[in-house]
Fold these 4 entries.
Entry 1:
Amino acid sequence: MMTVSTFQLLDGKRCGEALRARIAQEAAAVKAARGRAPHLAAVLVGNDGASRTYVESKVKACESVGFRSTLIRLPESTSEDELLVRVKQMNRDKELDGYIVQLPVPAHIDPEKVTLAIAADKDVDGFHPENIGRMVLGQPCFLPATPSGIVELLRFNHIETAGKHAVVVGRSHIVGTPMSILLSRNAYPGNCTVTIAHSRTRDLPSITRQADILVVAAGRPEMITADMVKDGAVVVDVGIHRVPDTSRKSGFRLIGDVKFDEVAPKCAWITPVPGGVGPMTITSLLLNTLKAAQR
């Protein structure tokens, strides 16, 4: 069997930097026109370490493109009603263009209730049913940040998608399902024939081996191995997991849902972890916030 000996990285850092340069220019124009910069807020409930790190990186990203950012920290004990009151206040805040409530929230809070309470025109995460419905219909909306970031990554690297067989592993409302919709739409990137695979899929390797474009968002460390990928595939790894590594100062390293060292030599293109999809998710959040400000 032929193996592709050289592969190219779908570099989310490089793509994100290019897009952020454009965002910064447009943000400056917004500020000049209306007297204030685009404003993004993030609500963090509790002390989840990964969520805290992620939210802080979003705040830094805002600063890098000239946005105003606000981080609202709420204690773990915050009740669902208290959070919903805060959400309603933010919906009415005319100085705020968009905001997110970082997930996961503590177990005593229903994330669906929170998502439904966020005003659709400030839902820069793209999770509100109105935005999801508009996406399905191909209407203007805020796209979910991670799938949108993947689309921009494919576009930036001029990956051919029309007529390709795309397999999406994972069917979450945040990544897998919207990813399948974006790849199948009549646009570029898009026009793929899409298969969604998940935990109930029988003989998963036989499905993933058919993929010209394989997007993996299953949340299982290194589940995709070399025997599951066809030669010359484009592989997008959405997963990110922290595993112990005593050889590193941090004591851990980051891996994805794809066994990178084993799979990469078979690929034409593959995302690294970290540095692939992650930076693009944050960049997409900035794009949505800019879009909200331009409205």
Entry 2:
Amino acid sequence: MYRLLAINVDGTLLRPNGRLQSGTKEAIEFVKNKGVYVTLVTRRNFPSTKKIAKALKLDSMLVTHNGAFVGSTVEDPILEKRLTEEMTFNIVQVLENFECNIRLLHERFSVGNRTRFQKNLLAKAVFGSGDPLFYPMQFVDSLGDYLIDNPVATPKMEAYFSTDDECKRAAKTLSEAFTKVSIHHDEKGRLEIVPKGVSKLAGLKVLCDHLGIPLDKTVAIGDSNDDQPMIEAAGLGVAMWNAPKEVKLAADWVTRSNNQNGVTYMVKEHFRKQQRLEFLNQIKVEK
């Protein structure tokens, strides 16, 4: 009996064009009718994730900002971990020595610097962060100067670089200078910076503890390297076909790609065999 389904968003729930996979809404409704709690676990900011959840008719708590912010509303999260105002400012001071676009991703707004480098950096920073149109976005000439008058404690920072070599150099510098942050680097020239100990798995554990659901009673579906710990720890870990090889090797189940309705296929194939918990209780079947 699996009691919670955790789904990553980009590369898993969404197709490469950013749209929901065909049949996803029906699959989510199908599994909800089985009495399974459905949540989204994502690197996206809270408003963007909430918009997707609304489209799926989910009113559940969401694990966002790579696990730094967990809740069903902005006003009342069950978990919020932040880079302090001082640490945010100091990291920005370091990053402004590199050729990059910096984004501070608060749960209510985002603020970033106007890059003077490659023109596509700003577009990558906006669309790569999954910002919905209603999410307040501000760009300033100097993020460091802005923070002097407007200090921000943020759940997550992102930096987009013109080259991957520059990105790796910045990651090395930050790792050596700041021991209380976690830095994730991907091959697309992007850094994600969160408080130490923050991860999708850690956020999912907080949600499971809050709901009273053991981790081994969860199903986790993902496609990226930062999904792998969650996939390995879940009762049933599922990798998308479009996931890296190491993520697929870590999974219990490999489903179709996000371009072939992999989430819908997995959900209907697996959960069609599972009865509602209330029904099993009625016939006195042990949980």
Entry 3:
Amino acid sequence: MAGEPTDLTKMTAAELAAVMAAGATSAVEVTKAHLSRIAEVDGRVRAFLHVAPDVALNAAAAVDARRARGEPLGPLAGVPLALKDVLTTTDMPTTCGSKILEGWVPPYDATVTQRLRQAGLILLGKTNMDEFAMGSSTENSAYGASHNPWDLSRVPGGSSGGSAAAVAAYEAPLAIGTDTGGSIRQPASVCGIVGTKPTYGGSSRYGLVAFASSLDTPGPLARTVLDAALLHEAMSGHDPADSTSVNAPVPPVVAAARQPDVNGLRVGVVAEFSGAGYQAGVLARFGEAVELLESLGAKVVEVSCPHFTYALPVYYLVAPSECSSNLARFDAMRYGMRVGDDGTASADEVMSLTRARGFGPEVKRRIMLGTYALSSGYYDAYYGKAQQVRTLICQDFDAAFEQVDVLVSPTTPTTAFPLGERADDPIAMYLADLCTIPADLAGNAAISVPCGLAPEDGLPVGLQIMAPVLADDRVYRVGAAVQAALEQRWHGPLLARATGLAWPDGGAR
């Protein structure tokens, strides 16, 4: 069947690591299989902005050589990975999905990039994204939208849509995304995979091109909860180069994913995340997931977090304000695009012309919103007030976690929407992150795991699990329990139903 992945590309990261450790295959062969898969299908999925075969194969050969010498290797050594194009890489371009950085090759690796290389993961290339991580559909990329492998006429979510699509299309078993308002969990949900936002500061932001510095969080995308936990552990830990990095041990996420027992766990259903605006099939699958947790021994109660209803407007004051400040560095003077430099234009004119051509409409919109919110006479009324309400949202979480161990909700109000449907309606687009934003504002850990297919369209639905700061292991414990129980019910992984993918040539979905 067209679009069918090979045996090696069907394997999870844990399975690949095991067969390589046993000598049944090599890192080079695994890498070649995934590069072939990318060559076969990415012309239609468009998950990648840059593929680096030489870089990947050289890294794979180095892992094989180390294994042959008997050197100790990390648990994911030789496993391929797709990296969101917002993390710096010395051997590949870093564009952030923007024309203003087209072709820019950074002089240093991000800390996350360094840690992945040191762990022996194989970087296949850089994935597509909404420009500077601003969007929920990947349609804001200056290089064209990515497509959802379940249905190529639908969005893969955003801003980490390329990373999610690569994993769902079996182009990579693992990927890195970043989550500012839901940009890992929302694409994971609509692509039917697992995506985690670690505790803020649990993964380093050094070398992550900043959108909103108090929110941006790198995290893993995978097809299983265990794979996500293994990647989470490999990429995380204190980083002295990042002033916001948490100086604390990485929570025992892998152990939690391997012991998915929720008996006696207190689970709170967020009352504010239901009702009008939610797709009926999403609520149905979410309700079944809650019933499943109860059947596994969890104690389920409804919890009210009243200020969560203000999270969306708070986010769209805080994040644009921070982006207005962060993106001021793109001034055409030091790196990236430069327009109008003919010897007659002033520096201000060159800067203005470059930004006008280099930034896309959504980035300009958010810069203007943020600049206005920070301007004299408006700061207290807008940005200052938003930060006060942000504190109330944090207090809602604190109060909830006095009653329960984790909170659950749908990850997104709807399944993947058609490409172009919300492109001219920013408010409708922003609503895709309705459920995910509170955890970003508070810095909590959160995960999205698949919990079934919506009956209206046969597309994936995600279950969001939220835990307190530095209790990341709880989201893996619950997520692994849900995934294991549902796989028994489905007689196999949910994503196996999308193996053939929704190709225009008639491949099965």
Entry 4:
Amino acid sequence: MSTKKSLFFVEDDLSFGAVLKSYLEICNYSVTWIDDGKYAFNAFKAGTFDLCLLDVMLPNVDGFSIGREIKAMDPQIPMIYLTAKSLKEDIITGYRIGADDYIIKPFDTEVLLYKIAVVLKRSENPESPEDHNIQIGNYIFDPILREIKLGETKQLLSPKESALLKLLCDNRNELLAREIALKKIWGDDGYFTTRSMDVFITKLRKYLKDDDSIEIRNIHGSGYILSDHAG
């Protein structure tokens, strides 16, 4: 039985589409290529796929609309946008639809290959519910329920507070660059969002204040470091 992963590829540029399809097939992927947006969703429904590669600017039906239809049918299907649309609003739209990555043309096909592999590996090894709990000193942080627990005491977090704390945990004892956090959570790294994030950092420090082993340090002009000195 074939072990090839099956890719659903929507791209209206015939030259680019043919070259990329051939490259992916050489790299041991099975590729279904559709070159017109109006045929895409029916083709997706007719097959079984491991990952979607979608252009945005397509004839008749755009890639964002196709992505929404696909995610409504199969919320777990991994999805990568390959597009020349590089405006921040377009990138945010792609991620809001549920894309795992948003790659702007032109791009290096070898880099795309690695990105496909990473997204597929992540989709094959989803975290079990217990994996979501994160130990921070004596606190237990649940980013799914958006709460911090210390003993029997619980603190519910707002979505942005939880997202910021998760980023800090993902980069524990390392610098979380300010601009990365701002763009991932707020979608903007301007002055007012920077001030807003500083307020959220202050709130997180307050929530974690009952454990002296935990520190959120401000690295001036660069970002923050969550340090856990327990043990």
